[in-house]
Amino acid sequence: MDDAGILRQIERMTDEEQSLYRRAEDEHGMTVDEKARLRNLEVTLDQCWDLLRQRRALREAGQDPNRAKLRDAKTVEGYLA
């Protein structure tokens, strides 16, 4: 997937994430399924941002951005700020 495709995926997931938050606010909470979906979205978004950063770093280093790989959730969620 190229950068534009990754950004489109991020935008779709962010829209869904915001929709879940709005619905929770309007309905005074989230169902168990909605909470699980939100957590899945958060992890997948982190993975997409990580992939995009990898692609940009490879490109800046004069390397092929297609060498970037989607890292597993445990790796991406284990990063320290």
Description:
The chain is mostly helical and 81 residues long. The chain has one domain (3-77). Helices cover 73% and strands 0% of the residues. It has three helices and no strands. It has helices at 3-27, 32-60, 73-77. α1 (3-27) packs antiparallel against α2 (32-60). It is elongated and about 50 Å long. The two termini are 26 Å apart. The model has no long low-confidence stretch (mean pLDDT 94).
Beta-strand portion reads under 5%
Spatial separation of the terminal alpha carbons: 26 Å
Number of helices: 3
Total domain modules: 1
Structural class: mainly alpha
Shape assignment: elongated
Please summarize the sheet with the most strands. Answer: none
Q: What is the arithmetic mean of pLDDT? A: 94
Task: Give me a quick take on this structure.
With 81 residues, the chain is mainly α.
Helices and strands in order:
Elements: H1 3-27, H2 32-60, H3 73-77
Helix pairs in contact: 1-2
Structure keywords:
single chain; 81 residues; mainly alpha; 0% strand; elongated
